[in-house]
Write a structure and sequence with these properties.
6 helices, globular, alpha/beta, six-stranded mixed sheet
């Protein structure tokens, strides 16, 4: 059975790309030490997953490309989507070729604290425990006019898909990166409406 890491490897080879991983927007500047520990944990989760798949060499091509600017502190998910799409305009030929150019990660203080307070990669049976989350934002999202379902409003949106979802820290890479691709098919298939968390 082909695992997530092999799918990432195949994607890089097929698309002739040398980097993988979501772009991360840092939207909290309350505590640099907390942020550093958050990134350590995200990388530890990723390394643990790659080691399980016998694909540790993929750490060499993992590139979070963290976008840091104190002006992003408190920025809305809608605004991060706009900023991400502006960045994507520089890579128009890459759109829909990789999750890296379809979704981005947004991290606010709530995300940081959820990961710091959650299970650690070294914990026994850590992947079946709550280990915090990040926000994954879909670049192409627009309100679905054919969606007749009405849910409790999130950021004023009552649709099924609100354009972003929570992804458990231990499932960001390579799991979510692998599943969320395919030009939007993955997002539609594996989307979990908040406050639920993608952790499969």
């Amino acid at each position: 059975m082909v695992n997530d890491s092999q799918h990432v490897r195949d994607l890089l080879s097929y698309r002739r790309q040398n980097k993988w991983g979501f772009i991360i927007y840092r939207c909290t500047y309350k505590n640099d030490a907390q942020w550093a520990r958050f990134m350590e944990l995200l990388n530890e989760w990723t390394r643990q997953n790659l080691e399980y798949d016998k694909a540790l060499d993929l750490m060499d091509s993992l590139d979070w490309n963290i976008r840091e600017d104190p002006k992003l502190d408190g920025t809305s998910k809608r605004e991060i989507r706009r900023i991400f799409n502006e960045w994507l305009d520089q890579y128009a030929d890459y759109r829909d070729t990789s999750p890296r150019y379809e979704q981005c990660i947004m991290v606010d203080q709530e995300c940081v604290e959820s990961v710091l307070d959650g299970a650690q990669p070294s914990d026994e049976n850590s992947l079946i425990k709550d280990h915090g989350y990040v926000y994954l934002i879909d670049a192409r999202w627009k309100p679905d006019e054919d969606d007749d379902d009405v849910y409790s409003p999130i950021d004023g949106c009552t649709l099924t898909d609100v354009g972003w979802q929570k992804v458990a820290a231990g499932f960001v890479a390579p799991r979510a990166f692998n599943l969320m691709g395919e030009g939007g098919w993955g997002w539609d298939t594996y989307y979990v409406r908040p406050p639920g968390v993608f952790d499969l």
